[in-house]
Write a structure and sequence with these properties.
about 150 residues; alpha+beta; five-stranded mixed β-sheet
Length: about 150
Protein backbone atom coordinates (compact mmCIF):
# COMPACT_ATOMS: atom_id res chain seq x y z
CA UNK A 1 0.00 0.00 0.00
CA UNK A 2 2.88 2.37 0.74
CA UNK A 3 4.43 1.76 -2.69
CA UNK A 4 1.08 2.26 -4.42
CA UNK A 5 0.46 5.46 -2.42
CA UNK A 6 3.91 6.69 -3.46
CA UNK A 7 3.07 6.09 -7.13
CA UNK A 8 -0.23 7.92 -6.78
CA UNK A 9 1.52 10.83 -5.08
CA UNK A 10 4.11 11.00 -7.87
CA UNK A 11 1.31 11.05 -10.44
CA UNK A 12 -0.51 13.81 -8.57
CA UNK A 13 2.69 15.88 -8.33
CA UNK A 14 3.30 15.42 -12.06
CA UNK A 15 -0.26 16.61 -12.80
CA UNK A 16 0.16 19.58 -10.48
CA UNK A 17 3.43 20.60 -12.17
CA UNK A 18 1.77 20.39 -15.60
CA UNK A 19 -1.11 22.53 -14.34
CA UNK A 20 1.26 25.11 -12.85
CA UNK A 21 3.21 25.17 -16.13
CA UNK A 22 -0.03 25.96 -17.95
CA UNK A 23 -0.78 28.81 -15.56
CA UNK A 24 2.54 30.60 -15.97
CA UNK A 25 5.66 28.80 -17.15
CA UNK A 26 8.75 29.38 -15.04
CA UNK A 27 10.91 29.91 -18.14
CA UNK A 28 8.64 32.76 -19.25
CA UNK A 29 8.92 34.42 -15.84
CA UNK A 30 12.68 33.94 -15.61
CA UNK A 31 13.88 34.51 -19.17
CA UNK A 32 11.04 36.01 -21.20
CA UNK A 33 9.36 35.28 -24.50
CA UNK A 34 12.30 34.20 -26.67
CA UNK A 35 13.29 31.36 -24.36
CA UNK A 36 9.74 30.35 -23.45
CA UNK A 37 8.54 30.28 -27.06
CA UNK A 38 11.60 28.33 -28.17
CA UNK A 39 10.85 25.75 -25.49
CA UNK A 40 7.17 25.61 -26.52
CA UNK A 41 8.20 25.03 -30.15
CA UNK A 42 10.53 22.21 -29.12
CA UNK A 43 7.72 20.58 -27.12
CA UNK A 44 5.07 21.02 -29.82
CA UNK A 45 3.68 17.90 -31.44
CA UNK A 46 4.36 19.26 -34.92
CA UNK A 47 7.62 20.70 -36.23
CA UNK A 48 7.78 24.35 -35.21
CA UNK A 49 10.33 27.15 -35.48
CA UNK A 50 10.61 30.52 -33.77
CA UNK A 51 11.97 33.66 -35.46
CA UNK A 52 12.53 36.64 -33.18
CA UNK A 53 13.78 39.97 -34.48
CA UNK A 54 15.03 42.23 -31.70
CA UNK A 55 12.37 41.35 -29.12
CA UNK A 56 13.60 40.99 -25.56
CA UNK A 57 11.82 41.39 -22.23
CA UNK A 58 8.39 43.00 -22.31
CA UNK A 59 5.79 43.87 -19.67
CA UNK A 60 4.57 40.69 -17.98
CA UNK A 61 0.97 41.07 -19.20
CA UNK A 62 2.14 41.28 -22.82
CA UNK A 63 4.60 38.40 -22.45
CA UNK A 64 1.86 36.26 -20.93
CA UNK A 65 -0.73 37.12 -23.58
CA UNK A 66 1.69 36.46 -26.45
CA UNK A 67 3.03 33.24 -24.95
CA UNK A 68 -0.41 31.74 -24.38
CA UNK A 69 -1.67 32.85 -27.81
CA UNK A 70 1.32 31.21 -29.48
CA UNK A 71 0.92 28.09 -27.36
CA UNK A 72 -2.77 27.86 -28.28
CA UNK A 73 -2.01 28.38 -31.97
CA UNK A 74 0.59 25.59 -31.91
CA UNK A 75 -1.94 23.27 -30.28
CA UNK A 76 -4.57 24.19 -32.87
CA UNK A 77 -2.13 23.59 -35.72
CA UNK A 78 -1.17 20.22 -34.29
CA UNK A 79 -4.86 19.24 -34.11
CA UNK A 80 -6.15 20.70 -37.37
CA UNK A 81 -3.37 21.44 -39.89
CA UNK A 82 -3.01 17.84 -40.98
CA UNK A 83 -0.11 15.42 -41.33
CA UNK A 84 3.23 16.86 -42.34
CA UNK A 85 2.30 20.43 -41.40
CA UNK A 86 4.91 22.77 -39.95
CA UNK A 87 4.41 25.92 -37.87
CA UNK A 88 6.38 29.14 -37.48
CA UNK A 89 6.17 31.81 -34.79
CA UNK A 90 7.55 35.26 -35.67
CA UNK A 91 8.00 38.21 -33.30
CA UNK A 92 9.17 41.67 -34.34
CA UNK A 93 8.47 45.35 -33.87
CA UNK A 94 6.75 47.45 -36.51
CA UNK A 95 7.73 50.99 -37.45
CA UNK A 96 5.73 52.45 -34.54
CA UNK A 97 7.34 50.20 -31.94
CA UNK A 98 4.29 47.95 -31.59
CA UNK A 99 4.84 44.22 -31.20
CA UNK A 100 3.88 42.12 -34.20
CA UNK A 101 3.23 38.44 -33.65
CA UNK A 102 2.58 35.94 -36.41
CA UNK A 103 1.87 32.25 -35.99
CA UNK A 104 1.50 30.41 -39.27
CA UNK A 105 1.28 26.86 -40.48
CA UNK A 106 1.47 25.30 -43.91
CA UNK A 107 -1.33 22.85 -43.26
CA UNK A 108 -4.70 22.30 -44.87
CA UNK A 109 -6.29 25.54 -43.65
CA UNK A 110 -10.01 26.11 -43.21
CA UNK A 111 -12.82 28.32 -44.47
CA UNK A 112 -12.92 31.25 -42.04
CA UNK A 113 -16.37 32.25 -43.32
CA UNK A 114 -18.12 29.02 -42.49
CA UNK A 115 -16.11 27.57 -39.60
CA UNK A 116 -17.34 28.33 -36.10
CA UNK A 117 -14.85 30.11 -33.87
CA UNK A 118 -13.74 27.80 -31.09
CA UNK A 119 -12.67 28.48 -27.53
CA UNK A 120 -8.98 28.63 -28.46
CA UNK A 121 -9.38 31.50 -30.92
CA UNK A 122 -11.78 33.27 -28.57
CA UNK A 123 -9.17 33.06 -25.80
CA UNK A 124 -6.52 34.47 -28.15
CA UNK A 125 -8.75 37.41 -29.10
CA UNK A 126 -9.52 38.10 -25.44
CA UNK A 127 -5.83 38.02 -24.43
CA UNK A 128 -4.73 40.34 -27.24
CA UNK A 129 -7.62 42.76 -26.70
CA UNK A 130 -6.78 42.91 -22.99
CA UNK A 131 -3.40 44.34 -24.10
CA UNK A 132 -5.19 46.89 -26.36
CA UNK A 133 -4.15 44.91 -29.43
CA UNK A 134 -5.81 43.40 -32.45
CA UNK A 135 -5.85 39.87 -33.79
CA UNK A 136 -6.63 38.55 -37.25
CA UNK A 137 -6.98 35.06 -38.66
CA UNK A 138 -6.40 34.22 -42.31
CA UNK A 139 -6.73 30.72 -43.65
CA UNK A 140 -6.83 29.10 -47.02
CA UNK A 141 -7.06 25.47 -48.05
CA UNK A 142 -4.01 25.94 -50.28
CA UNK A 143 -1.67 27.85 -47.96
CA UNK A 144 -2.59 27.05 -44.37
CA UNK A 145 -3.45 29.35 -41.51
CA UNK A 146 -1.90 32.61 -40.32
CA UNK A 147 -2.76 34.31 -37.04
CA UNK A 148 -1.46 37.86 -36.60
CA UNK A 149 -1.51 40.01 -33.51
CA UNK A 150 -0.50 43.64 -33.17
CA UNK A 151 0.07 44.93 -29.64
CA UNK A 152 1.03 48.53 -28.86
CA UNK A 153 3.75 48.98 -26.25
Amino acid sequence: MVVESGRELEGALHDLRRLAHGVFPRLLADEGLPSALSAAARQATLPATVEIDGVGRLPVDIESAVYFCCHEALQNAAKHAGPGARATIRLSFDGTGALEVEISDDGIGFDTGSTAVGGGLTNMWDRVQACRGTLSVESDRATGTRIRAWIPL
